[in-house]
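User: If only I could read backbone structure tokens as easily as an amino acid sequence. Those tokens are not coordinates but codes from a learned vocabulary of shapes. Could you go through the record with me and say what the backbone is doing? Here is the record:
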Amino acid sequence: MSPALLMVPDFSLILIGWLLVRYTSFDRTFWSGVERLVYFVLFPMLLLQATNSAVFEFSSTSTMLALAIGTTLFGMAAGYAVKWVLRPNPIDFASGLQTAFRFNSYIALALAARLGGGEGLAMMAVIVGCVVPMCNVAAVWSLARHGEVSVWRELARNPLILATVTGLVTNLLGLHPPEVVAMTMSRLGSAATALGLMTVGAGLQMQGASGTAGMVAWWTGVKLIAMPAVAWLVGRQLPLSPLQLQIAVLYAAMPTASSAYILAVRMGGNGPMVAAAISIMTVGAILTAPLWYALVS
């Protein structure tokens, strides 16, 4: 099956979420509750189960993780460069910079599981657990002068980070849950994948980028083209397995995080612009992600 067809089921769930919120009684209030369930319960179970049961080869895993971190740092620098090229409004710049390097973990984990099974899911879970704190610190830093959110408190209670760390630590200690508990966690993880992707679709909003189209286009290019290109070019020179290279490039090719909108609003930024950027990148990734995967397959 071609890479594009492999990704059709997951991107179709995003479309279904978009259709449901517009043409049924399942409005944004309903989906807001679903997203909280996914974020605080279902996805943490998915990450905990994946990292606890995975078998890692330390040297190559650390190389893959270093590539993901390096690619993220490149995204931060390339996203920041728009400040000198387009000279944007400071609040618009601070609000949208995060969209150039943050990533949607729902889509990343779903596609990693589809393309690499449990092994691919575990690899992506490690990237999520290590890169999310770095991205959150950078995102909050860019908006810090406009709000009063404590970045360290946000990180300490982030359920995705806590679940990944718990899974890795218990894995290293040789502590694994009984089979019946592991099966329950697996069922919760399966629910997280479908519902998480549907909430992404339900949150799509295209309005709000007027007057900031140049910036949004710049950050979209960084996120969907430049970052995966760097991951692919550098990753080919590193001692990575084919699956590790695929996961690293797939991570870099993900659209920005849906939670970027929440952070922008919470810290007094330009929420509508960020919502539009998230939506544009998500739709764009439907076209670009299969192309990047085809390149590394």
Observations:
- The chain has a mean pLDDT of 85.
- Residues 105-143 form the longest helix (39 residues).
